[in-house]
Amino acid sequence: MRRTKRAIVKVLAAAAAFSVASCASTGGPFGISEEQGRALGEREHPKIVAAFGGEMNHPELFAYVDGITKKLMAVSENPAEPVKVTLLDSPVINAMALPGHVYVTRGLLALGNSEAELAGVIGHELGHIYKRHTARRISRGNMATLGSVLVGILTRNPGLMQTAGQAAQLYLLQFSREQEYESDLVGVRLLAAAGYDPAGAAEFLDSLDRYSKLESQIAGSQAAPPEFLSTHPNTAERVRRAAAEAQAVPRSAAMTAQNSRAQYLSKIDGVLYGDDPVKQGFIRGSEFIHPEMRISFSAPGGFKLQNTSTAVIATAQNAQMQFTGANSADSPAAIIQGPLAQQLGVQFSNIRQFSVGGRQGAAGYGRAQTQNGQVVDVQPFVIKWAGDTNYLFLWVSAQDATRSLQNGIEQSVASLREINPASINAPPTQRIDVVAVRSGDTVASLAQRSAFENYKRERFCVLNGLDTCASVAVGEQVKLVR
């Protein structure tokens, strides 16, 4: 979770920040003109950067990724169209596109294993730009809003539970199956035209699918999938189709020159892996601790905490919670009854006042209906923390479970407290460490050298794109996390 002042999505102020209607026009077949699209991209660019932790300060890595992008653009049908690359300092695995902009997170870079794989991701995002998919989705109003947070919680689909707000309304566009396949096709063709092995696109999608399955296994199916899977759906089918498309592309000897795993790994060696415990917070048992924001709180028993780029999520069998921050001068009660009710489409009643550590708070109660007709309870708790900074706990639970969960919910909210960072023993930051396999090294011995607490072997194999996870060759370079 990011610091409020810099990058926590301002959830409660989002409704006025971005109006779908204001983006629509009749300028062109996709609803908005190219000029309007570029203007929209420039307007939303700072919001995406803020929501994903800012830009990475890594000139060498930026030059490398920018060079790959320019190489792909040069062989496209629109080589003169300006596109700016931004590397986002976020551990989430995602890549995005706006008119005139392509975004890649450091989390995605860490999962990649060759230049061809990264080029496949960038080529796919360029496909969204060249085919004007973003413009189409905006003109039709098909974008994620804060309502998606509620829908995701209510349907127990963590993939939909992406925080919405003034940044997220655009970057969480849900592309259709056809648009995804269309962009995959563009990406594969750009790869081949630029001299890359077009199989790189399918290889990265396969790694992404394996990563998602492993994370679900580790979390007991309660983990949200990588954001890339939420905004770029149908991964398994896309792997098959991208692989088939790649097989149909004629190979040339030149294709092997730019696919070096060693060169790619040398560029990401030393890159931060996962959250920065001080700047982004960390989870210790059932407690979330954020030294830079100087706060902590505990989840009720039976809930599993997950720290994402824009919120902290707690998940149980029949309930979910999302904790985030928002800037508003309004009182907590006014926030609940005003912008929060409007964005969620829920009427809140039984507004009551409470205090946490001497700070003013308000809670409400409402009911909503899921897409399958299930009625659930929705309970927001807003605490006025300091100045215009507010913290929101949004709890959603099955009707038959709310009563038994209520004490735990109340205790979790009451556990929010200010901490002294000097008294917190934060875990060390972790980074990608590229090493050469030595004689006597095995998958098991290498995996044990990584800093992961569990599933070391499985994580090592997914991170390095090892299909069989059986052996490694002497001299081969592999990624550890240390």
Quick structural overview:
This protein is an alpha+beta fold. It has helices at residues 14-17, 20-23, 34-51, 59-74, 106-111, 115-130, 133-140, 146-154, 168-171, 177-193, 199-219, 227-231, 235-248, 261-268, 277-280, 332-344, 399-414, 443-448, 456-463, and strands at residues 84-88, 95-98, 101-105, 272-273, 282-284, 287-290, 295-298, 304-307, 312-315, 319-327, 349-356, 359-369, 375-386, 389-398, 417-418, 430-436, 477-481.
Care to describe what's here?
With 482 residues, the protein is an alpha+beta fold. The chain folds into 3 domains: 11-272, no CATH class; 277-423, 3-Layer(aba) Sandwich (Protein Transport Mog1p, Chain A), CATH 3.40.1000.10; 430-481, Membrane-bound Lytic Murein Transglycosylase D, Chain A, CATH 3.10.350. It is 41% helix and 21% strand. The strands form 4 sheets. A 7-stranded antiparallel β-sheet has the order 8-9-10-14-13-12-11, sandwiched between helices. A 4-stranded antiparallel β-sheet has the order 5-6-7-15. Strand 6 (287-290) and strand 7 (295-298) form a beta hairpin. The longest helix is centred in the middle third of the chain and has 21 residues, at 199-219. The chain is globular and about 65 Å long.
The CA-CA distance between the termini, in Å, is: 22 Å
Low-confidence stretches: 3-29, 142-173
Shape: globular
Q: In percent, how helical is the residue content?
A: 40-55%
Number of strands: 17
Number of domains: 3
Q: Tell me about the biggest sheet? A: 7 strands, antiparallel
Strand order of the largest sheet: 8-9-10-14-13-12-11
- Rg calculated over all Cα atoms: 23 Å
Q: What is the average per-residue confidence, as pLDDT, rounded to a whole number?
A: 82
Discrete helix count: 19
Q: Structural class of the helix and strand makeup?
A: alpha+beta
